[in-house]
Amino acid sequence: MKSRALLKTLREKNMDVFTSKDLEIIIGRKPYNTIKTLTKNKEIIKIKNGVYAFTDTDDMKIATRVIEPSYISFLSALNYYDLTEQIPKKIQLITTKRKKHAKYNFTTIKKNLFFGYINIDGIIIAEKEKAIIDSLYLPKEARGLKEIELLIKNNLKEIDIKKLKEYASQHKLTKKRLKNILR
Q1: Rounded to the nearest 5°, which phi and psi values hold at 31?
Q2: Are 23 and 6 in contact (CB under 8 A)?
Q3: Run means of pLDDT, 10 residues per run, the chain, 183 residues
């Protein structure tokens, strides 16, 4: 399969981020030379060993593939949902692993708090309520408790309060912080 046809197939399948195994299945052989050519021609970029993306792929789609599992949260998610105008310098993600990265800000949390995320067109992102709870859990990642309190009070119609309370119940301090805000 020629490079142009391969790229067209990947685009048709909405595979903006793909693995070398995905390519092998599509072209029916080891993709080493194909990857080398596409990378050299700046049609794809390497995200990490065995994972690639089109050069025009949304950074939010790429970010969650750098470390797996991970999801976008804090101000990055809250801004995505138009709940805040605050935009962090780096895309903020949550993971259960320890990782530093030049382009993305990874925050490690306990496995029992790693939930409440969805896939929106290839972007693995916290639900609105989970992004708020993550921000209450680690307020420095969202510019502090005052900012989060303002965000909640300004967006009450956009937030599922029942789900917010349910998610907050997973951590005592977060539950207490939410209770104080909702009084």
Answers
A1: -95, 10
A2: yes
A3: 91 96 96 96 96 97 96 98 95 94 94 97 97 98 96 96 97 97 94
Domains and CATH numbers, the chain: 3-57 (1.10.10), 61-182 (no CATH)
**pTM of the model as a whole:** 0.93
- DSSP reduced 3-state for 183: coil
SS3 content of the chain, % helix, strand, coil (to 5): 50, 20, 30
Under 8 Å between Cβ of 67 and 99: yes
Alpha helices in the chain, H assignment, sequence order: 3-12, 20-27, 32-40, 59-66, 74-80, 128-137, 145-154, 161-168, 172-182
Rounded distance, CA 133 to CA 136, Å? 5
Residues 167 and 61: their CA atoms lie apart, in Å, by 25
